[in-house]
Amino acid sequence: MVRKTTIVPVNRSLLPQIKAIIDNKTKPLGALGQLEDTATTLALVQQSLQPAIHAPHILVFAADHGVARSGVSAYPQSVTWQMVMNFLAGGAAINVFANQHNVALKIIDVGVNHIFEAHPLLEDAKIAMGTHNFYDRAAMTREQLHEAFHVGREQVEKAIGAGSNTIGFGEMGIANTSSAALIMSYCLNLPIADCTGRGTGLNDQQVQNKIALLGTVKKQRGPLHSSDDILQHVGGFEIAAMASAMRYAASRQLTILIDGFICTAAYLCVYREHPDIADYVIFCHQSQEKGHQQLLETLKAKPLLALNLRLGEGTGCALVIPMLYSAVNFFNTMASFEGANVDGAS
Amino acid sequence: MVRKTTIVPVNRSLLPQIKAIIDNKTKPLGALGQLEDTATTLALVQQSLQPAIHAPHILVFAADHGVARSGVSAYPQSVTWQMVMNFLAGGAAINVFANQHNVALKIIDVGVNHIFEAHPLLEDAKIAMGTHNFYDRAAMTREQLHEAFHVGREQVEKAIGAGSNTIGFGEMGIANTSSAALIMSYCLNLPIADCTGRGTGLNDQQVQNKIALLGTVKKQRGPLHSSDDILQHVGGFEIAAMASAMRYAASRQLTILIDGFICTAAYLCVYREHPDIADYVIFCHQSQEKGHQQLLETLKAKPLLALNLRLGEGTGCALVIPMLYSAVNFFNTMASFEGANVDGAS
Lengths: 346, 346
Description:
Rossmann fold; 6-stranded parallel sheet; globular; 9% strand; 47% helix; alpha/beta; homodimer; 14 helices
């Protein structure tokens, strides 16, 4: 996908110095666990021995899914636009956590089935009033896919313009766990049942129906190989935009925060074609949604949090923000054994 | 232990209202996972539908252990006082995280083998220059145990005087995983090998030596039943003070934050005699230290974090502070379905 830009692996020449700094802090070796890994990632991505989080952003891409009309979600499609209105009014979970941690929040309408009035938090990048129902036909045209890619790059460019070096990604789109389940199933060659969960709260019978429907989609569609084909046929505008945004963010050497199941599915589309993106990524939350754990294992990812959230919106990214500051703060300000005159291990 | 004060279960009459508030927030039912549990705990402990975190404190109890002379730690005993100096100078991990989250930090010398000069962060409550080596004899006298209990209560009283309704507990004491392992083994009737880990970084052979030594202690000491007997014989001053502080904090209906393995061992001493303390507790971090996971399972506790920390100092409590604010913030300020005109599940 978008082969014009390239993702280079981070330059690891600083790694010995980074490790020496961490190991000389006044604590047993390795005792800060995943915070040490996080500090290492930030220092390598930033190519700095004084890493810092600048103007963290969370970009929430929102779009509707034609497949919602097939009854794969516990909530009606109208909830997508209603939740966007809730984001704009400041009433959603992501607003609460973004405000708490002083994170810049942008809501990007890539294809919600509703016309919104202009609002400072809202980016109008609507491609259509939602995707086609992929039960009947491809979710979007190739042109629409490229439009979604363009939106993703553009939004990252804007965040960079606002001074950001750290971007979290979130999404809103009723029925988008169906899209994410198909993406996972295609990319990893797994049975659809292994990738399909309760979404916002389906019961057992409804999950079975969802699996049956998605299985039919896969059978009708036949094999899909490239990430572009998969995104075009069974993706969503918000998922395609996220994938492109992540890819572009890595090419610009920003730190990328990955939220839950849908966000990870978008990441997977990029990762399988550009595995070096992994150098730029911090996984934030392991979701309750079935499939996410296996997806994370495939990616060898251990998120910083596992709070049983299943909300999307970038909430996992927002909750991780203070831990990023903890990582840079210990790296930059904690005393060394020599500086504090503390004896080392015998 | 300290049977004079009582711990009452929280009054659950507010529970239906708390649940209604959470379930009406604009999110799928249960979608905020452990943050919903945390908000519920805070609201019940505070008996309030507008819970708030006031003047959070972290009390780090520090003391030396005679058993350190038997070579059960990777670090020499001198590290206890050197790390206390590091706390006072602001250079340790707990300083970094407490500063980041605006948490009041107190270092309480209950028995460090060093004379400190007065310092604003330091509470001088020294009982002795460390415990006796419990390989040879009881770690402390009954009088010293009661002194440690008194210190714990007194420090909680001071935090309450400073307006705190939320107290985290941490510790510093070279060799105190040995003490915690014996406490766990006695309280839960488990083989010492199941309770003994690497502490600050023992290798396999050193862990075997530690297990052998602690097994000998258990054999020589014979059965110990009450928490007071266990703490007196194989505890430490900082562990006894923490246990008493937790117990008193629960009796005063504060929220109690539990850090890692040693802190949980102190809690276990109280819990087995006053199980209602569980109503007041938020478990912060699941440690890498062997035994902690089993200890948490016994207590049916699922900490908010599992970052592979193995540091103590109350660092897990400090890292959880922003999540406590996230819990009260969503509870108090997130929009309801009705308020935001968002449709519910079908």
